[in-house]
Amino acid sequence: MYTAYRAVFDRMALGYRVVEADSGAIGGNESHEFMVLADSGESTVLYCENCDYAANVEKAVFKEDEAGDDNEALKPLEKVATPGLKTIQDLVSQLGIPEKNQVKTLMYMADGQLTALILRGDRDLNEIKLKNYLNCNQLFMADEQSVRELCAAGFGSLGPVGLAAPIYVDSEAARLKNFSCGCNEDGFHYMNANLGRDFIPTAVGDFKNAVEGDPCPDCGCSMLSIKGIEVGHIFKLGTKYSEALRATYRNPEGEEKLMVMGCYGIGVSRTMAAAVEQNYDADGIIWPMPIAPYQVIIIPVNTQKSEQMRAAEEIYLELTDLGLEVILDDRDERAGVKFKDADLIGIPVKVTIGPKSLQENQVEVKKRWETAVERVAITGVGDFVAAIVKEGLARK
Predict the structure, then answer these.
(1) Which of 63, 164, 245, 248 could in theory staple to 215 by disulfide, Cβ–Cβ 3.0 to 4.6 A?
(2) More confident residue, 169 or 156
(3) Strand (E) positions, 38-178?
């Protein structure tokens, strides 16, 4: 299915990436999203230009620097007054402590249990990773009243030392030494806190968002970020549902085996919309040839002129006989209106039949994605246009 979906989007001539994705409530062993790349996309994709790695930001990981300073001595835990300092940036600007040497403590309700998340100061929490790790049904940020009842302090003054709650520490923060953190007392922070000595975490894991510039997990090169529109999703469900349903089959040896299942979907209307978001200019849509509503539009400048209409109809029949998808604009409208509509709708090839070119037994042919107009002899217009369409269908 992965190969089939790639073939589908290749044939549509869309710029896309296949990215690792979170399986969500559907579950299963793994899943991939097919993302059409567009600045207006609702999803963020991290990818590597040096290799094939690409992932939705919900799933993306990176190669962490595991080399710590083993020679750095642990300093004594120190409690300092920090009146009015509640954010990471406050500590940076007022105390000169780099973001990477601070940790922030986030409090969440995980299936009704107050849970602490410890991240390095320059990182953001990835709630999808956390929810999957905890295997909980509901996860949301705790309210301040619940936090104060447990910690005796408000947001901005929280920390892992002495915290009576499950503590989950991100793997980067777990490697820090002598870091600063809140001390669960308003207006105070700890300096030189250390994991293992000053607090024991419930677990350590990857709970952070990867960002542009982080090293690729496969090759180590810096990753790039781009927006994408999800147009397809495939899931390898494995035996999750067949176990629950007792859905089995017998192999040639007569052994009963669980069915291996998958789940697949392409958003047809989303794909069309995504194609437009990726292919347009100031005048309208520029349809990729394989999914254009018509490949060619024929426009007689004046439908009241019999010679123009006769030529238009002959060319229409010739192109149709060649297997092309053609529309003839025979509306009694001004030429300018027809030209604007053709550009707006985005028909890839426009054949114009006007009085001057017709006198020379020629027509004008224009590709929607180019500005140049070519004069072509009427006797050769069929082969000329067919070649353009063939080239457009082959473009990937």
Answers:
(1) 63
(2) 169
(3) 43-47, 54-56, 78-81, 103-110, 113-120, 139-141, 167-170
